[in-house]
Amino acid sequence: MPAYAIRIFGDPVLRQCASEVTDIDGGVVRLASDMIETMYQAPGVGLAAPQVGIEKRLFVYDVGDGLGPKTIVNPVITEARGEWEFEEGCLSVPGLHWNIVRPREVHLAGIDLDGNDVSIEADEYLARVFQHELDHLDGVLLIERLDPDTRKQALRTIRTRVLAGAGLVTPVERPAGQAGTSGPEDAPL
Ligand SMILES: [Zn+2]
After folding, report:
1. Residue 165 Cα, ligand 1 centroid: separation in angstroms?
2. Candidates 87, 124, 133, 185; catalytic one
3. pTM above 0.85, yes or no
């Protein structure tokens, strides 16, 4: 199956709280595989099911650590510690990035596609990916993690772009000096 279209800011599915996966059947395995393809094609380093219009609690990621793509079903963050600021982007709010403070370390629990328990201690970048994707499963977008003033400004930027007819799908040029340096940590989630 071809890759999915990624749902963009304004799509109500991005505001829904997704439901637990009760049975990891062939459909869920196929969904994960199609989501991985969609994520690579975007390109991004993480993608949650609601971002492709499916209200199920799972996400895929590949942070470029050589371990390949991973799928986490019914993820839960059981512990969070510290604070870390990172410039975060989202495939559903393309072309925009904000510095967002979130916990530096998290412990993630969930299950993999074989139904085995997964328990991962993550810090910094990986911890950020987990928190961002988990937010998607709860219908929360990164804009809601901004302080009220920055959030107002962000919504204004988004609105201006949509009104200008540019939409949100046009990738924005990164500021000079950042071109050509895009690694996995530049990629949206
Ligand atoms: Zn996102």
Report:
1. 22
2. 133
3. yes
Distance of alpha carbon 151 from alpha carbon 142, whole angstroms: 9
In the DSSP assignment, the letter for residue 186 is G
Q: How far apart are CA 15 and CA 2, in angstroms?
A: 25
Distance CA 111, CA 118 (A): 5
pLDDT in tens, 46-71: 999 999 999 999 999 999 999 999 99
**Ligand 1 center to 89 CA (angstroms):** 7
SS3 per residue for 18-72: CECCCCCCHHHHHHHHHHHHHHHHCCCCEEEHHHHCCCECEEEECCCCCCCCEEE
What's the 107 CA to ligand 1 centre distance in angstroms? 20
CA 135 to centroid of ligand 1, rounded, Å: 8
Helices (H) and strands (E) in the chain, counts: 3, 7
pLDDT of residue 169: 55
Q: Which domains does the chain have, with CATH numbers?
A: 12-172 (3.90.45.10)
Q: How close is the Cα of 55 to the center of ligand 1, in Å?
A: 14
Confidence of residue 164 (pLDDT cuts 50, 70, 90): confident
Q: Is the pLDDT of residue 44 over 60?
A: yes
Q: Could you confirm whether 185 is annotated as catalytic?
A: no
